[in-house]
Write a structure and sequence with these properties.
Number of strands: 13
Strand content: 15-25%
Order of helices and strands: EHEHEHEHHEHEEHEEEHEEHEHH
Helix content: 25-40%
Bound molecules: uridine-5'-diphosphate-4-deoxy-4-fluoro-alpha-D-galactose
Largest sheet: 7 strands, parallel
Shape: globular
Structural class: alpha/beta
Strand order of the largest sheet: 3-2-1-4-5-6-11
CATH superfamily: NAD(P)-binding Rossmann-like Domain
CATH topology: Rossmann fold
Distance between the termini: 42 Å
CATH class: Alpha Beta
Radius of gyration: 19 Å
Length: 346
């Protein structure tokens, strides 16, 4: 069983990927400092997996400790690097925290990987690197725009750092950069999903909290965009489909030539409006989501969705869940966290 180090493995996408790794016959080893995840995820992962995955509760910026993990584990076959701060608004308020954490942790990780002869890395990038593209859908060749936020800029910088490894002539790293569109949904078990700390910024966790009565009302940020119902368009990808893309990336890396470094869009390839998402949630779950129309949110782009042909053809990846499936799973998860987690907190 090949051992895969998953930084940020206790987070939303990380924990779902840990499950998929196990299903595919890999041994996941988690590195996470729990800066944006709840420790209860470990017990819930144990319930789904039937065993407790190995965990190192450390910060990826701590080179000594990360080095010790590679030393102890000694036969790591590859790394999936999720660990990063990810709140767009917060990154505007605290840019240095984002530059330091997101960029430095990648540099530390690359050093340690090289020292221990670990070549394969799958990196969490984002469609945020495209900004508002001139033409849709976006392909991997679509030129990047200036990043709107420090968070977006860290993704562009980290992509550049990984692409630059090719130019060193050392033929060391083999890299897949996955540009995620909007991850939504929860694991089918209903006990693994997104658990934002505090009031969520993202649409789908907000919808779920309003539906469960924990928040009074959802504000739709703008209904005067140039889209069919006036609200913004995004490409919502089920987190379990997204998790699977990481497994297929590892398999792709095994066969990839020395020095390979490829970018893949991971989205369903179809846009949905904000209002469309809300209506889907209401319809599949039979609940109402009270909403009001508010002003546009600064920094939002009007519409984006992926051309995912490259991932389909080269990774052999294919999303199988619909937005309705994702919304159903979110509601199941919300009911679980209301009972098990929120109610237990003081
Ligand atoms: N929205 C609302 N009301 C809310 C929250 C969101 O109307 O309360 C709208 C936004 O205006 C946007 C859409 O819902 O039109 C999606 O917003 P999210 O915040 O869920 O997602 P974003 O597309 O803004 O951002 C996501 C990730 C980022 C990532 C970005 C692009 O959160 O990490 O996609 O990749 F960088």
């Amino acid at each position: 069983m090949k051992k895969i180090l998953v930084t940020g493995g206790a987070g939303y996408i990380g924990s779902c990927t840990v499950i998929e790794l196990h299903k595919a016959g890999y041994t996941p080893v988690i590195v996470d400092n729990f800066s944006n995840s709840d420790k209860s995820v470990m017990a819930r992962l144990e319930k789904v997996l039937g065993f407790s995955p190995k965990l190192y509760a450390i910060d990826c910026n701590d080179k000594e400790k990360l080095d010790a993990v590679f030393e102890l584990e000694n036969d790591i076959a590859g790394v999936i690097h999720f660990a990063a701060h990810k709140a767009v608004g917060e990154s505007v308020q605290k840019p240095n925290m984002y530059y330091y954490n997101n960029v430095n942790s990648l540099l530390v990780l690359l050093d340690v990987m090289q020292k221990h002869g670990v070549k394969n890395i799958v990196f969490s990038s984002s469609c945020t690197v495209y900004g508002q593209p001139d033409a849709l859908p976006v392909t991997e060749e679509t030129p990047e725009k200036t990043a709107e936020s420090p968070y977006g800029f860290t993704k562009q910088i980290c992509e550049r750092i990984l692409k630059d490894q090719k130019q060193t002539g050392q033929n060391f790293f083999k890299t897949v950069l996955l540009r995620y569109f909007n991850p939504v949904g929860a694991h089918e078990s209903g006990i693994i999903g997104e658990l934002p700390l505090g009031v969520p910024n993202n649409l789908v966790p907000y919808i779920a909290l309003v539906a469960s009565g924990k928040l009074p009302m959802l504000t739709v940020f703008g209904d005067d965009y140039n889209t069919p119902d006036g609200s913004c368009i995004r490409d919502y990808i089920h987190v379990c489909d997204l998790a699977l893309a990481h497994i297929q990336s590892l398999q792709w890396l095994d066969k990839a030539p020395e020095n390979a470094c490829e970018v893949f869009n991971i989205g369903v390839g179809k846009g949905e409006t904000v209002l469309g998402c809300i209506h889907t949630f209401e319809k599949v779950n039979g609940v109402k989501v009270p909403l009001k129309i508010g002003a546009r949110r600064s920094g939002d782009i009007e519409k984006i969705y992926a051309d995912n042909q490259k991932a389909l053809q080269e990774l052999g990846w294919k999303p199988k869940y619909t937005l309705a499936d994702a919304m159903q799973s979110v509601w199941k998860w919300q009911q679980f966290i209301d009972e098990q987690i929120h109610n237990k907190k003081p």
